[in-house]
UniProtKB/TrEMBL annotation:
Domain Orn/DAP/Arg decarboxylase 2 N-terminal: 86-316
Top-tier EC class: lyase
Protein name in UniProt: arginine decarboxylase
Top-level taxon in the UniProt lineage: Bacteria
Pfam families per record: Orn_Arg_deC_N (PF02784)
EC number, UniProt record: 4.1.1.19
Family according to the record: Belongs to the Orn/Lys/Arg decarboxylase class-II family. SpeA subfamily.
Matching InterPro entries: Ala_racemase/Decarboxylase_C, Arg_decrbxlase, De-COase2_N, De-COase2_pyr-phos_BS, Orn/DAP/Arg_de-COase, PLP-binding_barrel
Keyword Transmembrane helix: no
Amino acid sequence: MMSALPRLEALPLPLTPAPALPAGYEIAQGRLFYRGLDVLALTERPVFANGRLTRPATPLYVRRLSALRENYAYLNAVFAAAKVQVGYPRHMLLAYASKANPSAAVVKTLLEVGAAYECSSAFDVDVVRHAYAQGWLDRTRPILANGFKIPPYADALLRLRADGFQNLLPIFDDLEELESFAAAGLPFEVGLRARTLSEQPNRFGMDAETLRYAAERLAALPHLRLTTYHAMQTVSAARGLSYQNGLIHSLRGYAALWRHAPTLHRFNFGGGLPARHSGMNFEVWMRQTLGTIMAVCAEEGVPVPDLIFETGRYLVQDHALKLFKVVKTRLGADGVPYYILDGSIMSHFPDAWALGEAFTVLPVNNWDGAFVQARLAGLTCDHDDVYPTRRMNAEPLQLPANTDSLVIGFFECGAYQETLGGRRGAHHCLLPEGGELILEANAHGAPAFSYLDGQDAPAMLGALGYG
Ligand SMILES: Cc1ncc(COP(=O)(O)O)c(C=O)c1O
């Protein structure tokens, strides 16, 4: 119970200033507003669950579908403006890399605004079929198929093509994949994935010699038309010159292959775009990137290609946030308190403990009192279930000294965390998932909410075989 929490204000903890707010966040009457949303109100607003009116269950996952539409429209607008400014003569196709967040609400929203779809496994093909059945796309929508095409996945793609998905474009990662599509005899536009420069050992794609062999093999197969050079950029676009250098290397590879296969006319960047509000200037980056492509193609004497971006993180990272209640406090051995949340940080944010990735973490209420340095801990008994995580090697957070009814928000966590941490099923220390609140606008632009309730014991225990 909240009343049983030790009063940290009573302890001689040194006070600290309130944390600085990134753009898009504001405080009013002691509460945090995020892009105009009163965040605390999301946990207070009654919802219908199991036929009764209740409060949303925390940890509460909140999706803002409008952010997905805005991000999709913004990148298209950035390309359109840069195309005019630098005189880029070709088109751009923006695909959603569903691996970043394959939830139905996200996929539906992005398909309905016209995104192409990038899939990576056999079950992802089932998502395409579901989307078709629901009317989110038709059979002319470009579908880019990456991922290792083991037989069940290759078969699912071949069936999709046989069922009339005419713009299904498999991208072969090796010669074996090419042969399984060669044998099937169905007509496809296809891509080849090149091995790109990488700071880590890279297991994807083919080297220049294998690409050339693949292009020759494809030239002998009239039903497979090579159009696409896939060059997954492994350096984030936010890294300026290093990104442009990686891109130049890939463009030289494109040009070399074009000389053997002039049917090539698409250059696919893969992913690598940072989140929309991560601080990168997308307008500058796009102008630079188009300029680089035009310059390298002119130097190499090859036509400028159409472009494909398969973007995951950029489209979805800022559409979601997660809200936790502080249910307990503990003083750490170094005198810094832990605020214990009603869920597991490890389960919800695997990139934080596994990779040391930082999220925007802010208190949602109690801004009108004093602040202290504190760390967050999950409710599990796992040593690593803390934030900042050990890999982050960061200072404690600045949090309100008053922990009564305190709610903590992890913002911009809509990319990858959901499926890396797993949805439903069983989680660490058998802590249940909370509810999911989906924010939409109705036909008149007024806010509309839908709510999926949290996990109950039979659902979790059932997943573990307790019948
Ligand atoms: C082939 C391919 N395309 C696109 C993406 C999406 O990357 P990002 O989330 O950086 O946009 C990935 C991510 O792993 C990928 O493997």
